[in-house]
Amino acid sequence: xxxxxxxxxxxxxxxxxxxxxxxxxxxxxxxxxxxxxxxxxxxxxxxxxxxxxxxxxxxxxxxxxxxxxxxxxxxxxxxxxxxxxxxxxxxxxxxxxxxxxxxxxxxxxxxxxxxxxxxxxxxxxxxxxxxxxxxxxxxxxxxxxxxxxxxxxxxxxxxxxxxxxxxxxxxxxxxxxxxxxxxxxxxxxxxxxxxxxxxxxxxxxxxxxxxxxxxxxxxxxxxxxxxxxxxxxxxxxxxxxxxxxxxxxxxxxxxxxxxxxxxxxxxxxxxxxxxxxxxxxxxxxxxxxxxxxxxxxxxxxxxxxxxxxxxxxxxxxxxxxxxxxxxxxxxxxxxxxxxxxxxxxxxxxxxxxxxxxxxxxxxxxxxxxxxxxxxxxxxxxxxxx
Length: 385
Prior knowledge:
By secondary structure, this protein is α/β, with parallel strands linked by helices. It has helices at residues 2-23, 42-50, 62-75, 86-97, 111-114, 119-124, 141-147, 177-189, 201-208, 212-216, 242-254, 263-296, 322-337, 363-373, 376-382; strands at 30-31, 79-83, 102-107, 127-131, 157-164, 193-197, 221-225, 236-240, 300-301, 308-312, 341-342, 344-345, 352-356. Helix 9 (201-208) packs across helix 12 (263-296).
């Protein structure tokens, strides 16, 4: 019965979307599902239209070369590599750092563990050891200690600790300076490398008042997604030592990530690095505005540190099973969609919504989202009070 309820809720959402699109043709739709929905700025489009091009597989695209040099400085590393996606950037880092049979200690709520199709194992024979994530997105050092494999012929080799900053599923949490400063020497003493999934590292920098290079200094490798809040249309950077990036370039080619006249995309990435700070700071301000409004209306909200708001919602009849939670999420999405607001769920089986502020949603859009969440029907049906 619950499975049918989830299916019915999904169908209801689809019907609601169809009604919305037909009844509100041209009406404003506020998309807060993710910051991946951002569109390139006018300056990005101008740069894409006028940038010099070459064949990047031959190393001859001047715009890609410029982006990689700029990205390396921005991330505080010797070299950087432009790749099509953040998932590929993480996969390449794993391939360079690890051999078959090695193991990565990571967050049980991390993108690498949950949302990258098991690439570490299926592509490179590297296993993941997910451990409990603290509410602030960090991995407890004692828990990491207990997860390190003994030197034994029966065991895989603990090789790498993977961090995520900001931490998506923890609600955009920013890893603190104190934590990172303690982690780096601790890992070094135990022979563990550190990789930082910095898909939203620019958000962490804005929230903490630090530079991306300063934050990434603890890691042997770091990624940066240019197409989330930074608003470029495509691409991520992977940065590390020159030797690391030389090896990474070969793995990128193996994975099919070698691109030819990629300067068209890299040009937007250059502008993203140059221009992102002002509009991403506004995203954070908007997130705090939404947080305050939801708390005032009786919602339970994960404390906001950057541009992600996780909101717990009611499950009808007080049920706590995963299917009931999924049905509640689909119902909530449909209710908000009827007000022209798109959000996503946090993860399957969890009765929570994720709101991600982004450059596409201006002050009017944020006001529309608040109005949708604080309508009497929404408060009654969704807020946990």
